[in-house]
Amino acid sequence: MKKIASLFILITTIITSAQNKSTNNFGITSKELNLKIYEKDSTANALVLFESGNSEFKEDRYNIIIRTKYYYKIKIFNRDGYKNASFSIPLYNNKNNFDKIKDIKAVTHNLKENTPLEKDQIFEEKVNENWKLVKFTMPNLTEGCIIEVSYTIETPFKFNLTGWEFQSDIPKLFSQFKASIPGNYVYNRQLKGYLKLKTNSSTIKKNCFRVTGFSGHSDCEEVVYEMENIPAFEEEDYMTDTDNFLAKIKFELSETKWFDGKVYKYTKTWGDVDKEFKKDKNIGTQIKKANYFKDKLPIEITSLPSEIEKAKSIYYFIQNHFKWNEKYSIFKNVNVKNAFEKKTGNVGEINISLINALKLANLNAELVVLSVRNNGFATKLYPVISDFNYLIAKVNIDGTYFLLDATEKLLPFGLLPFRCLNGYGRVMDFEKDSYWIDIKPNEKNITNLTALLELKEDGTIIGKIRKYYSGYNAFLRREKSFSLQEDDLISEFESSFTDLEVINYEIINKDEKEKPLIENFEVKIENLDNVNTIYFNPFFDEKFSKNPFKQKNRLYPVDFGYPRQFSTNFSLEVPDNFNIESFPKNKSIALNDNGGNFSLLIRKNQNFKITMKSDFKIKKPIYFNVEYYLLKELFNQVINSQKTPIILKKI
């Protein structure tokens, strides 16, 4: 339920966790109304002047509810900021109970008039059996207006006290969250993101909570969390799920202690979780189906002499047998037998089948649960099973181990899908205690372009180009080679260079997943316009056209997922009737601590040959914010060098 709520919150134009300072204290100042621009972010289309919220536990007709008052005050600078004046508030219900929204109050303030939101401007939309949305857009919007909105939500679902998001896609001057939590309810709390709290206070209020029919009172913890001058969160390339980095305080119900002495625990130890997993019908029960594969695995596989050969053969057998249905489904709808018979299945069915098959062959195989990149990081502070949404296999051979996922047809043994490169996972041993494991990416992911070319006297260039790919670079190119016709691959390459024609094309190791992928091109670049000056880029299509890093500063890490290397070896023979006028300058730049580098060495052998060797290495999967500036500058240097042509002039 929390996951669905988070989804709806993210798609609202203003994060609906912005909550109320005082719903009876509407009002703006002339300074706020006359504000033309936010000096700390002149690009902002809107600015949260103030947002606050107050959650408290109340008795309501023999039911305990959480009542939360929400309040926003938002400055709209221009038309692009109008989207921040539309609200979509999710409400949950089940067969026994439901969320309620009440006391909606909203006003648009302009220089000349104030326009309230009317009841007939508020709509409900049913999403499914459990969810509906209350939606409205503020009236009479103009550039420079200020909107104020408040409402109250009452929920009987104690898991719905989930915390507070301080940061969104527009900047905020001030954000505040208050809660009064009876001692009967214990919540784990976690501060996420890279911003610091201005206020983090907790006090005890005596005898603040009681329930009809039970004797005694409970004390309440009154917490206050505040942040100020919060920058807008900007997404950039090379990052995992935004939920990892947005500034927020996260609550999760750990246990309840009732007045009659009963205690209900919701957050368990890993020992408890291990036991539950072992009995779970979708994991523990399905992982015991090894014997089912006794007559499914070919004898030529199970009789292989070495463990590594056996493991590889089983991996490719399962990979080839199944078609992945694009669903994860690790905690529900997992049935190994049905999936094997249908030859299609979800992540749980395919990879648990792989583990069972490995076990049948007497290999030491284990199950690893993890959270994929777009699902956020799984917390290590305490078990949160809902943090995990994926599982893979781990096979231990001769003192080392391999992490395997058989859902992708073109992945070689030992290479995980990119979505799985999210830091770590939890190995569920089922015989011993579970434990954390780092998910380390493949180190050698190389793209190499080698060009041996000759310039003819008429300005035509002929020669051969070889492109070599390994690791993830090979997987991505192999994936494309299967998705496109050969003519389309050729056309794509030809389009990267003016007047280039591919005379012959060859692709090597297309079906050999564990070998590097190689493409050979025989090319001809005609001088159709008979120009006397030729501008030639030796990088062809293996170059960066723009810097993916645009922010002045970045608070969160740059996560490439895996290290990568791009190299070019280029040679051009030049006839007597052409002169080599200019070419890119030699360059060498390196990041600190051997984190990466770019080098370019170009040589002019008198006037009849020019050679170039270039290397660009990203040596780490993750770079932290203190490394951002130098990483950004490294890319700038690469781009500047790669866009500088070799200039050849006819004599």
Please give the structural blueprint.
Elements: H1 2-11, H2 30-33, E1 46-60, E2 63-76, E3 86-92, E4 100-109, E5 114-116, E6 123-126, E7 131-137, E8 146-155, E9 163-165, E10 172-182, E11 185-192, E12 199-209, E13 218-230, E14 248-257, E15 263-265, H3 270-279, H4 299-302, H5 307-321, E16 323-324, H6 336-342, E17 344-345, H7 347-360, E18 364-370, E19 390-397, E20 400-404, E21 424-428, E22 435-438, E23 446-455, E24 461-469, H8 471-483, H9 486-494, E25 500-508, E26 517-525, E27 533-536, E28 558-559, E29 564-573, E30 578-582, E31 587-590, E32 596-605, E33 609-618, E34 622-623, H10 628-642, E35 646-650
Parallel strand pairs: 1-10, 16-17, 23-29
Antiparallel strand pairs: 1-2, 2-8, 3-7, 4-5, 4-8, 6-7, 9-14, 10-13, 11-14, 12-13, 14-15, 18-19, 18-21, 19-20, 21-22, 23-24, 24-26, 25-26, 27-35, 28-34, 29-33, 30-35, 31-32, 32-33
Helix pairs in contact: 5-7
Task: Please state the structural category.
Answer: alpha+beta
Strand content: 35-45%
CATH topology of the largest domain: Immunoglobulin-like
Helix content: 10-25%
Q: Write down the CATH class of the largest domain.
A: Mainly Beta
Largest sheet: 8 strands, mixed
Distance between the termini: 74 Å
CATH architecture assignment name of the largest domain: Sandwich
* Overall number of domains: 3
Mean pLDDT equals 91
Name the poorly predicted regions: 1-24
Oligomer: single chain
